[in-house]
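Example record

The entry below shows one chain as it appears in the dataset: sequence first, then C-alpha cells.
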Amino acid sequence: MTSAGSGLTLLQTCALSLLVFTGASQFALVGALAAGGNPLTAAAGAFFLGVRNAFYGLRLSQLLALPRAVRPFAAQWVIDETTAVALAQPTRRATRIGFAVTGLSLYILWNLTTLLGQLGARAIGDTAAWGLDAAGPAVFLALLAPMLKTTTERAVAGLAVLLGLGLLPVLPAGVPVLAAALAAPAVLCLEGRRSGTSRVHARVDDTPDAPNDAPEEAR
C-alpha cells in the first residue's frame, strides 16, 4: 500500500520486492519517491541501508560453505532474520536448513503480501486520502526501534533524525536521508575521543605521587 501511495505500479511494486528483498531499503526507496525525490537519490539511500547485509554475507559464507553455483541465489536471502536463525544453529547442517527454511518462507510471504497489499490499495482508491504516506516511515521506525539497545545506537538514531528533519526544508527529497548517514561516523568519532580522554585521565590518576620531602641524609 505504501508503494501505491508513492505512485508505483503493481508490476513495479512486485519487481521491487522480488529483487530488493530487504524491508528497510524498500521503505526508504518508496518513501523518497513518495516525497518527490530523484530516483537515483532514492536508490542511493536504499543502497546504504542494505550495505549491512554484505557484512552478514561475509559471516554466513563461512558458516554455510555453499557451492559457488549456489552462492548468488543464497545471497538474495541474506537479511536480518535469516542471519539470526543461521547463527543460532549448533551445526553446519542445521545452519543450512535454518537459513534455507527461513529465507524461502519469508521470501514467499513477503512477495505474496506485497501483491495483496498493492491490490488492496488499488481497491480502496485514492491512497493519499487514507494517510498511507505515513505508513512507510511508521513501519520503518517500528523495524528500527527494537535494534537500538545501547546508548551509542540511540545517539546515532537521534542525530540522524535531527539531520534528516533539519535538512528536509533545504535539500531535495531523498538527500536528507543520505546526509543522515553522517550521524554514525560523527557519534563514533566523538565516542572514540571520549574513550581516549578517559584512558589518559586514568593513566594520570594511576601515576604514583612523587615524594614531597628529600631523605634526611640529603639535607
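Notes for this example: Residues 92-124 form the longest helix (33 residues). Residues 149-206 form one domain.
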